Amino acid sequence: MIEYGILFGLATMLLFGISGFMIKNPTSRFGNIKSAFIVLIGGELPALLAAFFFLNQFNFYTVILGAISGIPIALGYILFYVSLQKRQASNTYSINILQALVIAVGGVLLLKENINLIETAGFVTGTIGVFLVTTTRHSGFDKAYLPAVAGNISWAVYWLVVGYAISNYGGLIPILFVGRGVGSIIVLPFFLLDRKSRRLVPAQKDRSLNWELLVGGIIAGAGNITFAMLVIFGFLAVGSIFNAFSLVIIILLAFVLLKERFSSTQVIGLLTVIISGVIIAVG
After folding, report:
1. What's the longest Cα–Cα distance across the chain?
2. 162 CB contacts (<8 Å, ≥6 apart)?
């Protein structure tokens, strides 16, 4: 079972890392509302495809809990993308370690998962790393990251709802499908009322950015499925670290392709976040 957990964890890290990198550039151009809507729609496609094979898993509880989970996932995308369109991808995604921290606490309290001292030390180390990453050259917290912090807390709530639903009622695919569907519906009116998105008619050369968002959303949707598989194996808390580990993929891609650069404090913070993930994985 541990081997399956590692396999799905590595797949989650890779999928979230690639999707996170792909989403950064279009988000900077189109804004958080349009980006959140397209990514949510894209992420719905893998669940839609899988739903045809798991129609028997749809029942009252999986549909209701899936619908409830749509609220925090929509809010998380809107908030997180506010920061992502303003700051570097690598720095913004490092905040995902906070999502892992909230999931770990919630997993212990709600899902009765166990967290040992080594894993606790890893979470504390990761929190310190996030603080260093989000610190400006004047040694003050960059307020542009506050929406990303709130977004990660919202995403953590989403996964706790998903974890509770799967643990008690099964129905992995229905919960993910209904959740992202409801999330898309929630974001839709904001998208229609957003003047920037409504007026935007991309030039032909910029239409590829729409496809980047859509494909990035599809890849993120596949990552959601592999992440949810970790819930089935009882690895939600530790599995969330693989989500944070996607930062490694994003850093490499952003450094090479986007030419992102970091201050010495941020480098230390990024390394601290990565080390914290190693500590938790070993624990």
Report:
1. 57
2. 65, 69, 175, 176, 179, 228, 231
Residue 96: name the closest of 145, 40, 48, 56 by CA. Answer: 145
Query: In this predicted model, what pLDDT tens digit does every residue of 1-52 receive, in sequence order?
Result: 556 667 787 888 889 889 888 887 777 777 788 888 999 999 999 988 888 8
Mean pLDDT of 243-271: 75
Say yes or no to pLDDT of 202 above 60: no
Any idea which residue has 């706790």 for tokens?
Answer: 160
CB 103 within 8 A of CB 231: no
- Write out pLDDT tens, residues 204-218: 445 556 788 899 999
Q: Are 276 and 125 in contact (CB under 8 A)?
A: yes
Phi/psi class of residue 31: alpha, beta or left (left: φ > 0; alpha: ψ in -120 to 50)? left
Query: 141 forms bridges with which residues in the sheet?
Result: 135
Q: 205 exposed, middle or buried (CB, 10 Å; 0-12, 13-18, 19+)?
A: exposed
Quote the CA–CA distance of 124 and 43 in Å, as a whole number: 31
- The one-character DSSP state at 140 is S
Please return the burial class of 94, using the count of CB atoms within 10 Å of its CB with bins 0-12, 13-18 and 19+.
Answer: buried
21: its two tokens:
């990198």
Residues 269-277, mean pLDDT to the nearest whole number: 76
Distance, in Å, from the CA atom of 72 to the CA atom of 59, rounded to the nearest integer, reads: 21
Q: What value, to the nearest 5°, has the Cα angle with vertex 280 and ends 139 and 40?
A: 75
Provide DSSP, 229-275: HHHHTT-HHHHHHHHHHHHHHHHHHHHHHS-----HHHHHHHHHHHH
Q: 135: which strand partners?
A: 141
The size of the chain, in residues, is 283
